[in-house]
Amino acid sequence: MLSADLPWLQAPLADALARARSHALLVQGPAGVGQLELAVRLAQSWLCESAAAGQPACNHCPSCKLFASGTHPDFQMLLPEALEAPARESLGLPFEEPDAKAGKAKPSREIKVEAVRNLLAFAQATSARGKAKVVVIFPAEALNGVAANALLKTLEEPSGLLRFALASHDSASLLPTIRSRCQPLPLALPERSAALAWLEAKGVKDAAGLLDATGGRPQQALEWAEAGLTDAAWQAIPKRVARGEVAALSDLAPPRVIDALQRLCHDLVRRSHGQPGQFFAPAALPSPKRAAPLLAWDAELRRAARHADHPLNAGLWIEALVAQAQAAVTASVR
Ligand SMILES: [Zn+2]
Question: Which key words tag this protein in UniProt (predicted)?
Fold first, then answer.
C-alpha cells in the first residue's frame, strides 16, 4: 500500500497528524528520507473517510482506494515536470512514461507559474467528496519566484476545506512569505538500524557502507545501489581519484559524480583536522596534512555543481573534475 514501506515514517506521521494546527504544513529536513512520502501520507489521512481525526489513513475506505489508484478528485500534487514520473513511480501511483520525442525540451526542474494557475482552479472548486481537498507541493524550493508569489494568497487564505502539505530539502531557500504561512514539521534522518533493515529487505548488499556514503539517507542509498554502485566501488573512489583514475567515477551520473567528490572533499577536510570521515571508511581515505588546498577545491566543486545536471560533454567534464581532485589531494598530503 502507498508508501507504507518506509517504516520510519510511522512515528513522524502520527506526530504530524496529532500536532497539525495549520491548514498548511511544511515537512523539512534532509533529502532521501521520505519527505514526499510523508506529505502524501498526510494528504491521504486528511482525505480518509474512515479514520478518526488525527489518525492515519485506513487504506480501505472508498477515499483511500481512489487515492491509491491516483484518481482522488480532491487531491493534487504539484511537482516539477522532471520529477512527475519518478515521484509517482516511487509512490506506487500510476504515471506516464516521459515522452522522449526528439526535439522536446528537457523536462523542467522548476515548478512554474502555469502549474500554480492550474492549481488555483482546483483550489477554488468545491470538495468533490466533501471531506477535504489537499495539495502536496514537492520540493517547495522548486517553486520559482513568480510561481511562489502566485500561490501566496491561496496559501494564506485557503477556501473551504483546502489543506496544503509542502515538503522541502532546503527550506532556508524558500521565500520567507511562504515559510511563514506554514507550520514547520521537521523530518530527521531515520534510526540507523531501521534504515539498514529497510535496505537489506530491498536486497541491497553491504548496506551499511552505502548508508554511510549517503550520510544516513536510505532512499538515496537505495537509488545508488540500483544505479549499480557497490560499497567496494565507493570505498575505492578516494584512492583511485588521488591517482587520477577517471574510471573511478565514469559509471556515475553527473550529479552523483559531484556528490561523491563533495563527500570526499568533506571527509578529507575532517581528516586534515584529525577527525574521522563521515562518508568513507577510515582505511579508504588518504591522510591530508593541510586543509587549504581542499578548501579551494571545495569552492571549485560548488561552482561545478551548478552545471552538474547537464554538462556539455560528460566525459571531458569528469576528466577535468578528476584532474582537479587529484591536484587538490596531492597538494593536501604534501
Ligand atoms: Zn481511508
Answer: Nucleotidyltransferase, Transferase
